[in-house]
What we know:
The complex is a heterodimer of chains A (335) and B (444).
Chain A: H1 2-36, H2 40-72, H3 74-83, H4 85-107, H5 113-137, E1 142-145, E2 148-151, H6 153-158, H7 160-187, H8 191-222, H9 224-232, H10 234-253, H11 257-279, E3 282-284, E4 288-289, H12 297-326, H13 329-333
Antiparallel strand pairs in A: 1-2, 3-4
Chain B: H1 5-44, H2 47-81, H3 83-92, H4 94-115, H5 124-129, H6 131-153, E1 159-161, E2 164-166, H7 170-174, H8 179-207, H9 213-247, H10 249-256, E3 262-263, E4 267-269, E5 272-274, E6 279-281, E7 284-286, H11 289-295, E8 301-302, H12 318-344, H13 353-379, E9 384-386, E10 390-391, H14 392-395, H15 402-430, H16 433-439
Antiparallel strand pairs in B: 1-2, 3-8, 4-7, 5-6, 9-10
The structure holds CIS-heme D hydroxychlorin gamma-spirolactone and protoporphyrin IX containing FE (2 copies).
The site of one protoporphyrin IX containing FE has 21 residues of chain B, from helix 1, helix 6 and helix 13.
Amino acid sequence: xxxxxxxxxxxxxxxxxxxxxxxxxxxxxxxxxxxxxxxxxxxxxxxxxxxxxxxxxxxxxxxxxxxxxxxxxxxxxxxxxxxxxxxxxxxxxxxxxxxxxxxxxxxxxxxxxxxxxxxxxxxxxxxxxxxxxxxxxxxxxxxxxxxxxxxxxxxxxxxxxxxxxxxxxxxxxxxxxxxxxxxxxxxxxxxxxxxxxxxxxxxxxxxxxxxxxxxxxxxxxxxxxxxxxxxxxxxxxxxxxxxxxxxxxxxxxxxxxxxxxxxxxxxxxxxxxxxxxxxxxxxxxxxxxxxxxxxxxxxxxxxxxxxxxxxxxxxxxxxxxxxxxxxxxxxxxxx
Amino acid sequence: xxxxxxxxxxxxxxxxxxxxxxxxxxxxxxxxxxxxxxxxxxxxxxxxxxxxxxxxxxxxxxxxxxxxxxxxxxxxxxxxxxxxxxxxxxxxxxxxxxxxxxxxxxxxxxxxxxxxxxxxxxxxxxxxxxxxxxxxxxxxxxxxxxxxxxxxxxxxxxxxxxxxxxxxxxxxxxxxxxxxxxxxxxxxxxxxxxxxxxxxxxxxxxxxxxxxxxxxxxxxxxxxxxxxxxxxxxxxxxxxxxxxxxxxxxxxxxxxxxxxxxxxxxxxxxxxxxxxxxxxxxxxxxxxxxxxxxxxxxxxxxxxxxxxxxxxxxxxxxxxxxxxxxxxxxxxxxxxxxxxxxxxxxxxxxxxxxxxxxxxxxxxxxxxxxxxxxxxxxxxxxxxxxxxxxxxxxxxxxxxxxxxxxxxxxxxxxxxxxxxxxxxxxxxxxxxxxxxxxxxxxxx
Lengths: 335, 444
Ligand code: HDD
Ligand code: HEM
Ligand code: HEM
């Protein structure tokens, strides 16, 4: 019971990070793009108005996931911790560069191309780095001999599966973020920005589906067990595809932009939960399962209670944040 | 040494924490003063105080941003460098760690709102109300993380049977004996550091010849905070010493170079130790003071280091860090006291050049004192990472690449340490106080 609740909480927060993190990362990239192509006043403003109040919150989602994982499944700290020193540290440095340079460029005095470049490029590198953790969790990249855990970096580099996941991550970031910014530009009634972001949504939509298929294909050889489980829950992935098609249709017809973005969330929601659900009971194939490595019931229950108490605090605050900034047409428009 | 993962992991942890703690301390310390300034401004209808709050908030935001990224690094790095420790910690002490993330959420959300809503409410008190969750969030995160650190010093709330952890009691682990004294000292020193930072900025401008009343208001507000919190720091620092005497006598003994268990123990300041003879040269000795520090009684018996096996001795260099922290603490209190005396007895000039200089020095001193205090605490826990259960050497990662990571992170912190002051100075130079007051872009 505790393991199911625990993994569900973690997965929901990781999904939250996937969506708002993607918006954030992609927006950084588009912001830089707008700068170098001199489209400054159209999308930059829209992006800045959305990003400035929420970037810190985005980061906390990731920290929450990490700490929650250690709390609910302590052994994962040991396995992932030992194996991921190098890739983990690189991802951390990228995150640090991104966060601090965002603050420097945004609250600091001068607008600098270097800051913006770092901000834009890390927006694509970070999701690439983070997505390899999911790849590693599929097994085959970690060896364990009497409690000495080692990552097989070489194998990771030559594995087609791992590269396709990286590409899917990058493309998804660009797509999710473009579809959100299309909606936000629409709320802000910024015609130029709207058209530009709509174009990007349409461009990046196709590749997300194509690469998802490739992920399926390569997974069938990399981890047949997981692949089989996914086939059995195939309806989830069909729903994901339908949500995608409906979203693209809305965006193409310039109608119901809010719903279109919601549909994109559903597209990723179905796929992400389908992937996670079929991944179970393993957290890390084949070493860690949610049943064998769950924390003690005492700790599990107190974590869940703390979580519920935390939600009581969090939900109203997030609601306030959204009302003041994101779903506030006046604010989005810049007044 | 370059290939010993234990030494390297310790170094990397040290570099990261030493950097983070500066941002974190300021992040905890500033919000109450921002909030007080805004409230005073609203109550007195004095736009100077509002401007004060706004300018402090701008600097605060940048520091918090760096605090957030370095904190994120710590959150992951602990698992990367100390996997066995985090596995054990996950079982027993993950509750406060988990709750800390909620405190972060809370603070981050309201900071975002606070920053971008200065003129959005008709009644300014609503905006002020938004500062309360920021204070609660940042102080709560300090509370939770410090209780984790306290647990590392006095672990409890679980049983260990044949290497497996059983009978976990999360709340007992969290409310361990080290928690009350540690949390209160960490919080008051954070407020103290925040106050001296703000006072030093104002003092600097006055010393440079700025005469606007704005600076005097800023200085006075901050100095009151300095006085209150320096007294509180000395009081709960003393409580911390008494805690050590009972629960971690080896740490106190190492910090005092107190080798033989004896009553009427002498307090030692400074000095040079001859470790073989256990003799100290050049130190200042204060009779009975150590017994008083430890138990409030001049005749009390204080346990000495020779009662412990030598391999469990903490490093003896912590003596200097302990002494420096206490000396600085006394100095800070003296400066704050002198300012108030000068201020309320008009015969003296409270804007005396020497006093202003002393106040300016106090800001870096208080930050140093934070670092010294932490080195004393953390190094004083050696060789344990979980006192009595897990040593540092057992807990470290076995990876061979820690050295490269040390270089990587050190360069990152170096870059941030260089850029941060540049950015802050540029930010405040671009919009001077005088121009902001003149432009009247501060409306109540
Ligand atoms: C501005 C910073 C500052 C100042 C002025 C002082 N301290 Fe401190 N001290 C800290 C900042 C600090 C700290 C960084 O916050 C520590 C490190 C760990 C902790 O709990 O707080 C600390 C730890 C610490 C400990 C160790 C607690 C432990 O390891 O469990 C003791 C005994 C004291 N302090 C005592 C004092 C006394 C008697 C002071 C008298 C003036 C004093 N401190 C001033
Ligand atoms: C007394 C010592 C410490 C204090 C007072 C402190 C306080 C803070 C503060 C104020 C922040 C900024 C949070 C925000 O604005 O959202 C922060 C960030 C953070 N700290 Fe520390 N911290 C301390 C030590 C540590 C340690 C030892 C850890 C590791 C377990 C840690 C983990 C973190 C993390 C993960 C973040 C980033 C959270 C985010 O993304 O918002 N902190 N800390
Ligand atoms: C809250 C502020 C903290 C600060 C500023 C701090 C500072 C330090 C410093 C300076 C060291 C190096 C000591 C040495 O070289 O011997 C250290 C060691 C360490 N600290 Fe802390 N610490 C803090 C809290 C924590 C917390 C809450 C944790 C864990 C959750 C933690 C985990 C460690 C670890 C794993 C080491 C390495 C082992 C060692 O060398 O003692 N620290 N810390």
